[in-house]
Amino acid sequence: xxxxxxxxxxxxxxxxxxxxxxxxxxxxxxxxxxxxxxxxxxxxxxxxxxxxxxxxxxxxxxxxxxxxxxxxxxxxxxxxxxxxxxxxxxxxxxxxxxxxxxxxxxxxxxxxxxxxxxxxxxxxxxxxxxxxxxxxxxxxxxxxxxxxxxxxxxxxxxxxxxxxxxxxxxxxxxxxxxxxxxxxxxxxxxxxxxxxxxxxxxxxxxxxxxxxxxxxxxxxxxxxxxxxxxxxxxxxxxxxxxxxxxxxxxxxxxxxxxxxxxxxxxxxxxxxxxxxxxxxxx
Length: 282
Fold this sequence. Notes:
Elements (H helix, E strand, L loop, with lengths): L9 H6 L32 H8 L13 H20 L6 H10 L5 H14 L4 H10 L6 H14 L4 H13 L5 H15 L4 H10 L10 H7 L16 H5 L36
Helix pairs in contact: 2-3, 3-5, 5-7, 6-8, 7-9, 8-9
């Protein structure tokens, strides 16, 4: 078992340049603001290597938290800011490193997962080839939902990516191996792009594959949403109370619905925030 490091704040100054030092001073609430402006720090392509080093640095896990709580938090938040910046400057050379980090942090690190979704979105069409390669190398991985979520937001930020994203989602539905959760994201994205354009493929997917129904509902829910049927003909097993879903032992990135909630609708937990900014990612 590794012994905890009991160093003072000099660890931050020794490991990273003066240009990165301000990232350790930013307040943690800025991590929840996806549009936080890093322009004042003037990071460029020349800073990519050091930013990758910080984004993937797990040294904070070895620092004695009880003795150095502030240091651990500053170090940890600094790594998340580095992920955000790499996405904003479209550092495609960082993708393989951040994907590996995503696998390591797939459970229990909500700050990183939120930053990763924004990272994928900000990378834009420049990163799609890399993300596509990963998707089809590991089509049965649950954590693909973070990639698909980021790609879905990309459609709003970079409309030129639509045809490329559509192609990837169609390929995933047709792929021999898939995972129920990311499969539901791929279906949702295709609906966002073309409404009922791909309904035949979606119907075939529900017929032949296991699809998670907590994001958009089952096939009948989707057909009702698209105006292709008036009402259900089977019992709706998807409609459960929000409390019941919260009590399920599910991964932090599972999509929680109170009887199918639109991502831009008010969150059913009563926070007053949009669903996509609240319990959608919890």
